[in-house]
Design goal:
- By secondary structure, this protein is of the alpha+beta class.
- It is built from 16 helices and 21 strands.
- The chain has helices at about 5-15, 25-40, 125-140, 190-200, 210-230, 240-255, 265-270, 280-290, 320-330, 340-350, 365-395, 405-425, 440-460, 465-470, 490-510, 600-605; strands spanning about 60-65, 75-80, 85-90, 150-155, 160-165, 175, 180-185, 295, 300-305, 430, 480-485, 525, 530-535, 535-540, 550, 555-560, 565, 570-575, 575-580, 580-585, 590.
- Strands 1, 2, 3, 4, 5, 6 and 7 form a seven-stranded mixed beta sheet that branches. Strands 12-11-10-21 form a four-stranded parallel beta sheet, covered by helices on one side. Strands 8-9 form a two-stranded antiparallel ribbon.
- A hairpin with a 4-residue loop joins strand 8 and strand 9 (about 300-305).
- Helix 5 runs parallel beside helix 10.
- The protein is globular and about 95 Å long.
Length: about 600
């Protein structure tokens, strides 16, 4: 709930600073002190003449030393620095104050007055903000400890925020996403914006979305595991249970992100808990209606056409009231905040009776995945993007008295950026041991971030809507290819990619629904062996025609004398022969990322 006193203070701050423009040196520190008062955070400390690392941890004009490749050095100063929190770079553009009186000012609004860093709302202004970001990044690289945030401020007009929660020297990315990392002075009336800035001052790591999402995802997986355990007691085999629960959880996700009417699925479950015998029929009707789109009798509302693979011929398992209550508890989780980077792993454990005990155990952290994905895929793509952006900026900066020539250069710059976007939407990434798709999802996420920056640049250039839409082309799951031997993991990997993609769609486009069908059966995740191809497998028989068996490699028993765990000779599996075995072919891809399963030498020979 909005605090009236805070809202009044924000409005007063905005009115005080709205008329300023073009006088960065005179206004920057006064503006930032007033901002500290608005956010109720301490003012910067006085700067002291000291080289001790503990001194000048929160000051204006922080001294930094740049070390160059030729052995020389040079000095710089950070406009505002807070150790571990942020590097802040101030600029001040210009605009006619009459243009700034509207409640909300588009970043691309044309203005005429030319003073200060650049005229606000022009391509030159966006370029000046980008240069300020580059300068802040240089300062961060020169520090002994990387901060979590870079902040660029156009005093009295706008902010741009970039984050690197790993603080590992890699790129700072627009935060919270490319569409919302810039906000205007007027947006400080929003409690969420002020809280975000306040936490950047006081507790920047609390803004790391993966921390909250990991807790939400673990809680969701625990509820699903409890329900899976209950269902498996009355249904033979884990596969029907897994398929049923995956359809349920995608429906929960669709409800929470707005693909289905609010509370419609949860409401259906609640209404049917007193009539559990009829729920299976209602769920099957709902999933048929989601598959084809149109009016849903189950939800009494129109639904989008989902199609894809998840709802073809969908069947539902009968549930009792206690099981419906478990499903309702899972549905009340915030599925929009599920973290796809770990969701696949936890879901696989939740649905696998053998792995369920390790639900809270270690999973590959996002930072570990990014350590591989960034240098392999994202950094090369970003290097290409910076080259394209520099070439486009050079064209836009050209001067000519000929309006026709200026228009031609602008058209060429827009086409350069559009060509890069087309290339980005055609990149194919392969994980030949994809498991539940975590590596593929994180690659998709960072390519979506990059795509958002490209679209923002096109908008700043004043590109026409058709250039922004690009005939519907976008980075989507069909570009992310996987091979996986575990049949349970294959549909989970597809689900992870679609959930992640749809989360990013809503971050980029707000409440605009995706194009129909919402899901597509790209068949980009293949269920097969990535190493070995063969025509068929045959059961190996002994000279008496009986199947040849071996220990299953997993089941143990206690030795009657030593009491130690030893292989259980009663737990066996049949041996098979691979006919016409050969090297497996992989689909064509531009990049390969993977975390192949590790098999130590101790048991490798027996497994082979």
């Amino acid at each position: 709930m909005t605090n009236p006193a805070e809202a009044a203070a924000a409005s007063a701050f905005i009115e005080r600073w709205r008329p300023s423009g073009g006088a960065e040196l005179a206004n920057s520190q006064s503006f930032l002190r007033d901002l500290c008062d608005l956010l109720d955070v301490p003012h910067p400390d006085p700067k002291v003449a000291s080289d001790h690392p503990d001194d000048n941890a929160y000051v204006f004009e922080k001294d930094v030393l740049f070390k160059h490749g030729d052995g020389t050095t040079s000095n710089g100063r950070i406009d505002l620095y807070k150790r571990g929190c942020f590097v802040l770079e101030s600029k001040q553009g210009s605009a006619n104050p009459a243009d700034l009186t509207a409640p909300s000012v588009p970043l691309a609004a044309p203005v005429r007055q030319k003073r200060g860093t650049a005229v606000r709302g022009t391509p030159a202004w966006s370029q000046a903000m980008d240069r300020a970001y580059g300068q802040a990044a240089q300062y961060a690289r020169a520090l002994p400890e990387w901060p979590a945030f870079l902040v660029v401020v156009d005093v009295g007009f706008a902010f741009a925020v970039y984050a690197n929660f790993a603080r590992d020297g890699k790129a700072y990315l627009p935060f919270p996403d490319p569409q919302n990392h810039r906000f205007l002075l007027d947006d400080l009336t929003d409690d969420t914006i002020r809280d975000r800035l306040r936490r950047m001052w006081l507790d920047p790591m609390s803004l790391d979305p993966s921390r909250h999402a990991a807790k939400v995802t673990t809680a969701v997986a625990e509820r699903l595991a409890a329900l899976a355990t209950s269902l498996e007691k009355q249904h033979h085999g884990a596969e029907p249970v897994a398929d049923f629960l995956m359809r349920c959880l995608f429906t929960m996700f669709a409800e929470d992100v707005g693909l289905l009417p609010p509370d419609s699925f949860t409401g259906l479950l609640t209404d049917m808990r007193t009539n559990p015998a009829g729920l299976a029929s209602m769920l099957e009707a709902l999933w048929r209606e989601m598959d084809r789109g149109g009016f849903s009798t189950a939800l009494r509302d129109t639904v989008l056409r989902f199609n894809g693979r998840f709802f073809h011929g969908a069947t539902a398992l009968p549930l009792d009231t206690a099981q419906i209550d478990l499903l309702i508890a899972a549905a009340r989780s915030d599925w929009s905040q599920v973290e796809p980077a770990i969701f696949g792993t936890l879901l696989e454990r939740a649905l696998d009776p053998k792995e369920r005990h390790s639900l809270g155990a270690h999973f590959t952290p996002r930072a570990y995945v990014e350590r591989l994905v960034f240098p392999t895929v994202i950094e090369p793509l970003r290097d290409d993007w910076q080259n394209v952006k520099a070439a486009a900026t050079t064209l836009l900066a050209k001067q000519s008295a000929n309006d026709k020539q200026l228009a031609a250069w602008r058209k060429e710059a827009i086409e350069l950026v559009s060509d890069y976007r087309r290339k980005l939407c055609q990149i194919r990434v392969l994980d030949p041991a994809c498991g539940t798709g975590n590596f593929l999802y994180i690659t998709l996420e960072h390519m979506k971030r990059l795509e958002g920056e490209v679209i923002e640049t096109l908008a700043d250039m004043g590109a026409a809507q058709e250039a922004l839409d690009l005939a519907g082309a976008t980075v989507d799951p069909h570009q992310f290819l996987g091979i996986e031997l575990n049949p349970r993991a294959v549909p989970i990997a597809e689900l992870v990619l679609w959930i992640g993609y749809l989360q990013w769609h809503y971050r980029q486009h707000g409440k605009v629904a995706p194009a129909e069908p919402v899901l597509r059966d790209f068949r980009n995740i293949e269920h097969r062996d990535a190493v070995l191809a063969y025509d068929r497998i045959e059961l190996v028989l002994d000279e008496h025609g009986a199947p040849v068996t071996r220990w299953d490699g997993e089941t143990m028993k206690k030795h009657p004398v030593t009491g130690k765990d030893v292989p259980d000779d009663r737990a066996t599996r049949e041996q098979y022969r691979y006919v016409n075995a050969r090297r497996a072919d992989w689909p064509q891809a531009d990049f390969i990322v993977s975390n192949p399963p590790f098999l130590g030498t101790k048991r490798m020979r027996a497994r082979r």
